[in-house]
UniProtKB/TrEMBL annotation:
<dbReference type="InterPro" id="IPR029058">
    <property type="entry name" value="AB_hydrolase_fold"/>
</dbReference>
<dbReference type="InterPro" id="IPR002921">
    <property type="entry name" value="Fungal_lipase-type"/>
</dbReference>
<dbReference type="GO" id="GO:0006629">
    <property type="term" value="P:lipid metabolic process"/>
</dbReference>
<protein>
    <recommendedName>
        <fullName>Fungal lipase-type domain-containing protein</fullName>
    </recommendedName>
</protein>
<dbReference type="Pfam" id="PF01764">
    <property type="entry name" value="Lipase_3"/>
</dbReference>
<feature type="domain" description="Fungal lipase-type">
    <location>
        <begin position="9"/>
        <end position="135"/>
    </location>
</feature>
Length: 227
């Protein structure tokens, strides 16, 4: 490999009903208090103490939350990699629930973690085992937050995040949570370098077709049909 000491841990996102339950258990308290803060007059003044209130509420549900604490397995795996010394430059990433778990384990182990449409962990940071600090989140985690994506707005974002546009219809906000749509938005906004964009960007999400390079006699549609 070009970078022999580099290791990338990829955490899968939500694929089953049990995963939705896990989302609710791990981030339910933070989301509830976000809603209360929004509706209460001058609700923002409670933000500095919300993490302590959420710690208490979560403590009451400790046994239930233990059943869905998948992040512990990820953190243990990262610690195993550290002890093996086969990889020293470890990064984590994931989408949706997987991204949220990556952010948690990244903050716990102090390794860089990048989430896509991931629930955040600023308010709930004290509920995880072991807990971590705001500095851990600010220094080691980064979340990509599509506009109108409800999952990426669970809990408060840390310092490092990037909002991106969502081209879905205004009343179809769950489509803003799709990883494919977000990857297309990133490619069309930031560029894809020497890599071509995905065919699904034009076929499913109605992004404009890329212009052919010099010497290419096929249209983008023709290229996608062949692949």
């Amino acid at each position: 490999p070009e970078v022999p000491d580099f290791g990338l841990v990829v955490v899968r996102g939500t694929t089953a009903k049990a995963d939705i339950f896990a989302d609710g258990q791990l981030w339910g308290a933070a989301t509830l208090f976000q809603i209360l803060r929004f509706f209460l007059p001058a609700g923002g003044v409670f933000t500095p103490i919300l993490h302590q209130v959420i710690m208490f509420v979560t403590w009451l549900e400790t046994k239930n939350i233990e059943k869905v604490s998948y992040y512990k397995e990820i953190t243990e795996f990262i610690e195993y990699l550290e002890k093996s010394k086969n990889v020293t430059d470890i990064h984590l990433t994931g989408h949706s629930l997987g991204g949220g778990l990556a952010l948690i384990s990244g903050a716990q182990t102090k390794h860089i973690a990048v989430g896509l449409s991931a629930p955040n962990a600023k308010l709930s940071r004290g509920t995880f085992d072991p807990p971590f600090t705001i500095d851990d989140l600010n220094n080691f985690t980064f979340n990509i937050v599509p506009n109108r994506d409800p999952v990426a707005r669970m809990d408060d974002v840390a310092d490092l995040f990037q909002r991106i546009e969502c081209t879905a219809d205004a009343n179809n906000f769950f489509s803003c949570h799709l990883a494919g749509r977000s990857m297309c938005e990133i490619m069309y906004t930031c560029g894809s370098g020497i890599r071509p964009t995905f065919c699904l960007c034009t076929e499913q999400y109605k992004y404009p077709e890329p212009l052919p390079r010099d010497g290419v006699n096929m249209t983008w549609s023709e290229v996608c049909k062949n692949f």
